[in-house]
Amino acid sequence: MRTLLLAATVLGLSALACAGAPAGAGPGQADRLYRSKCSACHRAYAPASRDAAAWAQVLPRMAPRARLSDAERARILAYLQENARDAPAGAAGR
Question: DSSP character for 47?
Fold first, then answer.
């Protein structure tokens, strides 16, 4: 059940990322957004330092501290998961 809930959350946030990202919001912009928001409190960890499921658990805890909007949270999560340790080869930058 927990895995199903996690999968549904990831899918929902991924859908928000697609809907909430402005046209032309490429990987470079997502990286800048991630670094600017998250490095205000700590270093910005390399996306490949965690797997996609770990990012899905970490980001919801950090989002309120970073004052992320829903669209920003979804975009950052999508960026981190696309570049996570277990991301399929060639998935980054889709």
Answer: G
